[in-house]
Amino acid sequence: MAGTVSDKQGSAATRNTIQRALVLEAVRSLHDHPTSADVYEAVRRTYPNISRATVYRNLGVLANRGDVLRVEVPNGADRYDFFNEPHYHAKCRVCGRIVDVDMPYESDIASKVSDAHGFAIEGHEIIFDGVCPACQKAGA
Amino acid sequence: MAGTVSDKQGSAATRNTIQRALVLEAVRSLHDHPTSADVYEAVRRTYPNISRATVYRNLGVLANRGDVLRVEVPNGADRYDFFNEPHYHAKCRVCGRIVDVDMPYESDIASKVSDAHGFAIEGHEIIFDGVCPACQKAGA
DNA sequence: TTATCTGCAAATACTTTGCAGGTTT
DNA sequence: AAACCTGCAAAGTATTTGCAGATAA
């Protein structure tokens, strides 16, 4: 690539702080779509004085950068994911757990929309609703 | 503990209260995916003493009954819709407005999922992300 | 040096819940 | 009468923000 990493294009400069590195590391090590609370607890184990605000702010910075993927969950805390490629999610209606689903990502899905009332569609998310294996067993 | 309740099939009996009727009427008359706050304001115009808690509780009852459709929006208040048939939604990333999109509802979409880690899929929602016409004009 | 970042606390946004009294059936 | 419902206030959950001091570059 001819582009440089220092091409900030008008966005504010970002620093490399211990806290930010720890937040990124935590998201990478927690493979189960951690919430901000999960990340906070994980970072606290090695850096007890970090504040929730710092975790929230850094998750925001990292998501904007594309270093992590933010999964916005209806009626639940946002989840974070180490970004590989776009994919869809399923949420357990009993325990709230989020899992990735293996289904082709339809990048041209907007072409199926015949009328969005003038909306300029820029992205989409599909969230499946169901019951996870653990809750199936518990409820049976 | 059988035999105490008549024919309610396990669900609690529901009453017809003025508040519940007004909440349903408000959702039917507000055609723009009202939030609970919108419904609260609408009902208050004719019934000033209703409380937010009653509005929330009744929206829940009506959604469980299937009389209204609850649209759970990531990072925003839930929206309510008079139920016709399942459909998808788009959310403006600037102002948060929700609109219906005109796209075929894929009731068999779960057949496209090759692996959901044992999830029993029961439903799905697609939320498009974009910019509404008003915000396009305002931002241009 | 200085703009960014941090921790703390307070604030915000949305929703639920405990309680005591009122209403529907 | 019994079960359900209501209003109020308080609590709960998730996230953001103002501020003053700390720190990366």
TrEMBL record, chains A, B:
The keyword Glycosyltransferase does not apply. Zn(2+) binds at residues 92, 95, 132, 135. The lineage of its organism: Bacteria, Bacillati, Actinomycetota, Coriobacteriia, Eggerthellales. Binds 1 zinc ion per subunit. CDD domains: Fur_like. SUPFAM superfamilies: Winged helix' DNA-binding domain (SSF46785). Keywords: DNA-binding, Iron, Metal-binding, Repressor, Transcription, Transcription regulation, Zinc. The keyword Transcription regulation applies. GO terms for molecular function: DNA-binding transcription factor activity; transcription cis-regulatory region binding; zinc ion binding. Belongs to the Fur family. Pfam families: FUR. GO terms for biological process: negative regulation of DNA-templated transcription; regulation of secondary metabolite biosynthetic process. InterPro entries: FUR, Fur_C, WH-like_DNA-bd_sf, WH_DNA-bd_sf. This is Transcriptional repressor. Its cofactor is Zn(2+); Mn(2+); Fe(2+). Fe cation binds at residue 124.
